[in-house]
Structure prediction request, 624 residues.
Amino acid sequence: MALERIVALVGGVGGAKLAHGLAQILPPERLTMIVNTGDDFWHYGLRICPDLDTVMYTLGGLVDPVNGWGVAGDTTAALDALRVYGETPWFRLGDRDIATHLLRTQRLRQGERLTTIMRELTRRLQIGPAVLPMTDAEVATIVHTREYGPLPFQTYFVRYRWEPTVTAIEFEGVERALVSPEAADALAQADAILIAPSNPWLSVAPILAVPGLRELLLQKERPRVAITPIVAGKALKGPAAKLMAELGYEVSPSAVCAYYGPFINGFVADERDPELEQPAMPVLRTDTVMSNDEDRARLAAQVLAWLERGTS
Amino acid sequence: MALERIVALVGGVGGAKLAHGLAQILPPERLTMIVNTGDDFWHYGLRICPDLDTVMYTLGGLVDPVNGWGVAGDTTAALDALRVYGETPWFRLGDRDIATHLLRTQRLRQGERLTTIMRELTRRLQIGPAVLPMTDAEVATIVHTREYGPLPFQTYFVRYRWEPTVTAIEFEGVERALVSPEAADALAQADAILIAPSNPWLSVAPILAVPGLRELLLQKERPRVAITPIVAGKALKGPAAKLMAELGYEVSPSAVCAYYGPFINGFVADERDPELEQPAMPVLRTDTVMSNDEDRARLAAQVLAWLERGTS
Prediction:
């Protein structure tokens, strides 16, 4: 089975790694990323889109290799100057990063769609694959916590370092959001859909919550495969494992597979974990840890080869 | 004659020097600057107020001592990143400077008045004297040129390095501008008004063009004194001399004195120039060149002493 066009649903750092793996092995016209924008927020008058920028900086070769987000070698002179004004900025705004936010915010204020803006910015950075926001509408992931009540995502994630206990997650404004024509086209034409090893509840759920997107995913028979973000009982990065426990899930690939159940027909687990018991779908067990560029390309190639074999 | 309260009308670098001289010798509650905002413009979605910021940075001890504008030791990482996106930014936006623009722009978008915003920013930088914009409205100095037609001020001044020949100057939007209550109060209470050695046509004329401001200047008998920006046939800085010639004026203190004629009743010329012939008002001849902090304080003190003697 030839899989000509691939769509990946991605969040931030983990999603960007898979995106980079796919971009290394596929010609750009065959690859589209649909990216979580629930983390986006306004800060000092700038519209900041952390996941979109992480994917863009990663594909553009600009990303900070240690953090996995932000621009390599970036400085914080503007942030330091905000402190001179008595501000206590809690979100790291690099100076080079600010250029992205300025260009994006200016265009948003002029009425351009985020999709159009990201197409222009990625074009200027000579990035081939399409990097699409999940919607052009403003959607805000709100994390309800036991300690502080509802928190905007970045407040929970950065300011409170995901320490509060999560009781529920809400996507504010999602009921008014629309799938963009570009995302709808990509989903209509895709021969396979991958869900990156991003946080299912915080990074992928917002994408799946955009009205109409689930139907576009399920509109035809084709491989729809998620890659586990849980390896050996832990999240490789961020709050996924802590969050699963707080929400009452078992911290395991099986629980992730079951969570995605209605949307996927294949699952990629890590070889470090035992085989899933009575899985509801075909499972590929492999090394899912992407420690370097080669790992990313290898995992992407393994998953695509598995799909082309018919998940056998 | 005791001169309790002083108002200075100021532009950018030259105005900031006089402001700093006055601030060195007067308690802050006795001193108010009314600053040109005709140079203000939108750039990458930021509201930039060059003259206000030059005055603020100078009074706050942050100014770049070589340029006389911008923040000392500032970097340009954001600007460099804009170039990575293929932009060709022609206006220098320092990274630290961007913090000022972000704070200001965010508050303007929230509906705050520029006067209120500048009061807050100067308070945070522990600047005592009031630094007031000439108006809260957006006014744009348009420089009509022989070569390129009408140019926004910064395009003429920075992008084209004031090389085009000026045929006329216009203050777009000034007819809808209002003197702020704060500026009106300061002008009502002032015991003397100084016009800084800023460019009369580009920096002071916009202030005088705000409807009602001339009447507030002239509402009562008191010293109103301008300091020459022309010394020994030249402008100490910027296009004043070139502009005067292009507009058909003789490049001399006399021509500046005559230009301000209706608004002033005293003039400060430089001792390097010959005595004005048949001046229409008292003239103080002194060293008006402010090369360092001491020069600034000395000139401010000399002018105030002259006014307190009754310009004798």
Remarks:
- Chain A touches chain B at residues 44-46, 62, 71, 74-75, 77-82, 84-87, 94-100, 102-103, 105-106, 109, 121, 124-125 (CB under 8 Å).
